[in-house]
Amino acid sequence: MSGVVKQESIFGVTLQALGERLKVAGHPGYRAEQVMEWVYLKRAQSFESMTNLPAGLRATLAQDFALHALEPVRTLGSEDTTRKYLFKLADGALIESVLIPASPALYGDPSDRRTLCVSTQVGCAYGCKFCASGLDGWARNLSAGEIVGQIVCVEKLCGERVSNLVFMGMGEPLANFKNLQAALEILNAPWGVGIGARHITISTSGLAPQIKLLAELPMQVRLAVSLHGARDEVREQIMPVNRKYPLEVLLEACEYFAQRRKQRITFEYILIREVNDRLEDAEALVQVAQRIDAKVNCIPYNVVEGLDWVRPEEARQDAFMAVLKRGGVTATIRREKGHDIAAACGQLRRQTLAPTPVSVELPGK
Asked: Do residues 51 and 98 both lie within one domain?
């Protein structure tokens, strides 16, 4: 295995790729299956502990691969049991992941569901006007290993298995399509993390060409589109990407995805007072949702330091939802989880200064 970059994350390597590399180095192909069993089923903490592998292979694996790609920096605990994890990457960059308690209104989750909100980039380049992730700009894409590593690290920290994944953390997942695709294979595979495709949701700000590419993948992952405006003049105030991919282009891509996959898309819709929460906005949303046969998930705006938007009063929220119901749209409203630790929708932010060492801050502590 000479020539392999040292300390590549083992979490970014597929079974097939590892098998091919092992064969080139003179090892039988079945060794790759043994390695992956140790990594994902037994959650080995070192290559040395993989006792059914030859000592020479264990030494080579330890030289070429990292088994711990992310360094936990801090865990924050919310009153609603949401947990926000801050991780340091090998180059010192910081990302956040959020473990969310069951959300029956949004996903129909039973009480034992644990949903992890995963990041795909350090920062974000798309500048959605309600979101903290892009306020400090974009630094780089995450590798497949850094994406998968979030799930592995969170499961170790919380001591439980993650059952659902939502790619709604920092960054635009479809702008990191190649690494996202590799990570999805590892996360879904029975030799990998083993999370069912229908328990994985990819969120996008509206990258129409990549939505069509996602529709062509064999894996039946779900799609959520950050709509936030059902008319171009409204959406452009909130979503700069709408200037490149206006609503008609986006909706055509959504139709392609829905028809190709025979799946219903979810439109995410942040309610912002006197920007997109008027009754005429709700009526326009009814038309768009009916066209795609999409579900709608409304989210009252979560406060972000540095942004001037305001959350609508509950009466305005209820009036908006009533229009959707009268229009026959399947719609829910999600009261925020993790707002008190800045872990709610739109609140994850690129960090530039390393905080204090690993700590856990729980309610009442």
From this structure: no
96 flagged as catalytic? yes
Give me the chain's average pLDDT, please.
87
Annotated catalytic residue: which of 131, 153, 298, 345?
345
Phi, psi of 349 (to 5 degrees): -135, 140
Q: Is 345 a catalytic residue?
A: yes
Res 278: pLDDT: 97
> Is 9 in contact with 145 (CB distance < 8 Å)?
yes
Asked if residue 208 has pLDDT above 60, the reply is: yes
Sheet holding 331-333, edge to edge: 331-333, 295-300, 266-271, 222-226, 200-204, 164-167, 115-117, 94-100, 83-88, 71-77, 360-361
Burial state string for 139-175 with b = 16 or more CB within 10 A and e = fewer than 16: bebbbbbbbbbbbbbbbebeeeebbbbbbbbbbbbbb
With cut-offs at 50, 70 and 90, classify the pLDDT of residue 170.
Answer: very high
CATH number of 16's domain = 1.10.150.530
* Cα 133 from Cα 138, distance rounded (Å): 9
Task: Give me the DSSP letters along 318-340.
Answer: HHHHHHHHHTT--EEE---SSGG
In a domain, residue 3? The reply is no
Give me the pLDDT at residue 111, please.
58
CATH of the domain at 246: 3.20.20.70
- Strand 164-167 to strand 266-271: parallel, antiparallel, or no bridges (unpaired)? unpaired
What's the structural domain count of the chain?
Answer: 2
Contact (CB, 8 A) for 14 and 185: yes
User: With b meaning 16 or more CB within 10 Å and e meaning fewer, what string describes 112-125?
Assistant: ebbbbbbbbbbbbe
**The dihedral formed by the CA atoms of 334, 340, 342 and 343, expressed in degrees to the nearest 10:** -50
Asked whether residue 226 falls in the same domain as residue 282, the answer is yes
The residue segments making up the domain with residue 108 are 71-361
The tens digit of pLDDT for each residue in 99-156 reads 987 654 444 455 578 999 999 999 888 887 777 666 677 899 999 999 999 999 999 9
For tokens 């630790």, the residue is: 341
Could you give the CA distance from residue 342 to residue 270 in angstroms, rounded to a whole number? 16
Residue in 96, 185, 268, 336 annotated catalytic: 96
